[in-house]
Amino acid sequence: MDSFLSLIGVRKWLFVCNYYKHFICMFLLVS
Question: Which domain of life is it from (predicted)?
Fold first, then answer.
């Protein structure tokens, strides 16, 4: 179950990264 939730988290993360054109990605990676 944990791996399943993890997969959803990764997919959501990638979607968010694409949606915000990596702005949020870079900000979170730096912090």
Answer: Eukaryota
